[in-house]
């Protein structure tokens, strides 16, 4: 029977976890510096201080690494189960959320990786499925839950389709960001929220 | 003094124009068949029946060829100066326009080239500038003109920023298309128009 590892023995699970975090952090930092097109597994390995084969053993492509890096980030930020704010005022809460999104999108450390992911999934079906399941759908559920509460509180038209409502609120912002067709400012997102909610309120 | 070409002599301008059209048509057809990633100058040349060097003499990259192909298409469709419909009812006109857009986006012959262009410009600054100047801005002007008329006719709030209004109307649709987050149907675009205009009407 093999001896149990003592507290002084190297712990392979903990060591793997440390390598994994180093790789994901390196991928996230590098894509912000050189862009997705020039990102390479070699460079990620060198920055993380691991061998290339370690990365290839865990991920099939640089897109997959980057995707897990973004996921790690959103998990780190969330304390427990993430939720959208609920102060009772849908308008105030949406303004808070969209202002926070704009702060992220204006930060080059986030802008480039998220831009890379958003364009890569257009051509990569496998990554698109993972994106939908692990990032997009969980966020959609949070948004739907918050809007449903507002609908029950009489702040949204009872006949409004919640997926359409989500697109009326977040679509203009994401489109302006991806197409770079204008500045992303708090005043801009406040106007989106006000205009969208006027269109979505009970008749 | 060189003799003027007679009607029977080969006309180099007309011959160049025929080659140009053959190349752009080949690029447009091929990208719909194989996608932008696998599109190659070699394949475009073979399909168009010209030498590779002919293409490289006129365009710096496959992205530039594809871009001109889309521009040729939109010029062919427009009889003279293009305009958005103006029947007097902004709601009816926008429904007509968005339904036509959805018919195009649901056609694989258009979907793939436009998707390729929309993602390529995210990483390619030169192509992005050409896109803005030659495709995006002319369309923005048409949209702004139509919305300004509606504003003058009292169908839109006089304080509404027209660029914001454009994004409230077209943003959700473009975002759903690029992210493939739902079906593009006439019922869907009608709902967008109704919801957006309710938010944008005079208070």
UniProtKB/TrEMBL annotation, chains A, B:
Which InterPro entries does the record match to this protein? Homeodomain-like_sf, HTH-type_TetR-like_transc_reg, HTH_TetR, Tet_transcr_reg_TetR-rel_C_sf, TetR_C
Keywords on record: DNA-binding, Transcription, Transcription regulation
Q: Which positions make up the DNA-binding region?
A: 40-59
Instruction: Enumerate the spans annotated as HTH tetR-type domain.
Output: 17-77
Cited PANTHER family: HTH-TYPE TRANSCRIPTIONAL REGULATOR RUTR, TETR-FAMILY TRANSCRIPTIONAL REGULATOR
- Name this protein carries in UniProt: TetR/AcrR family transcriptional regulator
């Amino acid at each position: 029977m093999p001896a149990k590892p003592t507290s002084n023995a190297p712990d392979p699970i903990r060591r793997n976890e440390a390598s994994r975090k180093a790789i994901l952090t390196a991928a996230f930092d590098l894509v912000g510096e050189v862009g997705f097109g020039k990102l390479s597994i070699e460079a990620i390995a060198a920055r993380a201080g691991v061998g290339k084969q370690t990365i290839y053993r865990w991920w099939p492509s640089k897109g997959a690494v980057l995707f897990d890096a973004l996921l790690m980030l959103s998990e780190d930020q969330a304390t427990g189960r993430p939720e959208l704010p609920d102060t009772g005022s849908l308008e105030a809460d949406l303004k808070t959320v969209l202002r926070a999104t704009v702060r992220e999108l204006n930060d080059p450390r986030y802008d480039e990786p998220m831009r890379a992911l958003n364009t890569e999934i257009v051509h990569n079906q496998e990554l698109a499925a993972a994106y939908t399941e692990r990032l997009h759908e969980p966020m959609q559920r949070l948004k739907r839950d918050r809007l449903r509460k507002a609908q029950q509180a009489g702040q949204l038209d009872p006949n409004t389709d919640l997926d359409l409502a989500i697109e009326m609120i977040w679509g203009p912002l994401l489109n302006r960001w991806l197409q770079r067709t204008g500045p992303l400012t708090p005043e801009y997102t406040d106007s989106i929220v006000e205009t969208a909610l006027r269109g979505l309120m009970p008749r």
